[in-house]
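Q: What does the assembly look like in three dimensions?
Context provided by user:
Components: two
Sequences:
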Amino acid sequence: MSDTAPVTVVEPAAADAGAPAAATRGRSRGASPVLLGALGLIALVALFEILPRIGVLPAQFFPTSTEIGSALVDELGRSAFWTALLDTLQGWALGLAIAAVAGIVLGIVIGSSPLLRELTASTIEFLRPIPSVALIPLAVLLFGTSIESKLLLVVYAAFWQMLIQVLYGVQDVDPVAQDTARAYRFDFWARVRYVTWPTALPYVMTGLRLSAAVALILAVTAELVIGNPGVGNRLAVAQSSGAIATTYALVVVTGLVGVVVNLLFRFIERRALSWHPSQRGEVAL
Amino acid sequence: MRVLRRIGFAVGLPVVLFALWWVTSASSTDFYFPPLSRIVDSLVEEWFGPRLADDVLPSLLRLAAGFFIAAVVGITLGVLIGTYKRLRDLLEPVLEFFRAIPPPVVVPILMLIFGIEDTMKIVVIAFGCMWPILLNTAEGVRAVDSVLSDTARTYRIDGVARLRNLILPAASPQIFAGLRQGLSVAIILMVISELFAASDGLGFAIVQAQRSFAIPEMWAGMLMLGLLGFLLSLLFRIVESRWLAWYHGLRRAQRAS
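A: Here is the predicted structure of the complete assembly.
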């Protein structure tokens, strides 16, 4: 298990592509990255305006940017849209919270005991790669379109991300610190609080960020496939009723929600780990 | 003795769980939770019988095609984006946005464009799992050790030789991290794309079983899907540990010192 650790943990650095880039190659000549980035976004919007108009992309499948934009504005004006968005966010937040608590508690309990770790390793390695969408039929049968079916998928998907990261984190505890704490007769809770938790916190934060993204994907997927109320379901309805511009607009909405979730969790990570070397400009791994 | 101990630890809990499931469900009359024996029967008869060729194989072929396309496109674009800083600055917000779109939501749109045939499913899989591959490759290429990179430049190693001998090997741990994330996304999309409209495939067959209330078959299909996910990740891990043997060895040496 330990041989997969570096690769998994390298990934968070990949997500923060922008930050170290500026640090290592600060000698930017000409246009600033922010300006170029804005230019890229404008170019994307412009391409989506021009290409369908001049017929490079078939107009019946590719609405222009202005059409998507006006459909988006229409959507934003409807209360049904906001209800759907709240439904999605509710399922996402609830599922993420359950998965995070379960992952942290189980991760610390299993990770603190070498015996438990050995006993559960094979089971975890087997259950983890099972795609959560395999649970869709069961979720439909048991819960129909109520929120539980969405939660089942979200929690299953997000839980493993969380658990694995916490397990890595707990294993990373410095044995000297652990022994010192024992020598000073720290009890189990005190050791968890003052030794294990601070060591594992960076991993917990990475796990949280990955889980948050996965949870959002599964929340929307459940709505799309099972038909739970939410943005995903609204998108399916728009598509089947032929409102193509609205379908695109809702895809844009899910993308924007995803970006906001990413930024939010990166922000939380930075705040929670402001004391940690990885956040002080040094590249951790 | 030590080997026995390790095997015992590895099989212990799964055997206990399986036995527990078997015993508690043996006399189950609950419609939704049939006895495990019936599920296993159906798994062996149906899924390792006719359905293996009819449903599992088409799914796997589409998965392979989509994943392959995503790997080629993702690594190519990733190398370009990782190499040129300007390009990276230009595209970063756009890529962040595309990556944040939950891949299943593009299924309805791609269904309009490509119909409901294999093309659509392959495009869905490729589209969804391309982003983690692309972004990880770009990051890996960007983070190539600057001393190595400058040395190569001093020796006038450039073009294809630079790509083959410096950039791709240096970025390969990250590329594999991306490929692994991509693979799990690809499996999800393989199933999702078959849920909307299909005439064959694993996802299709499972939902078909669920809709016709063939509950043991549904459970068997879910087990099959789980087994497939597990085997694919195992296979990937074997390939990865072969390919990156030098890297893991290097890291172990670094840690030991």
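Follow-up: Chain A touches chain B through 78 residues (CB under 8 Å).
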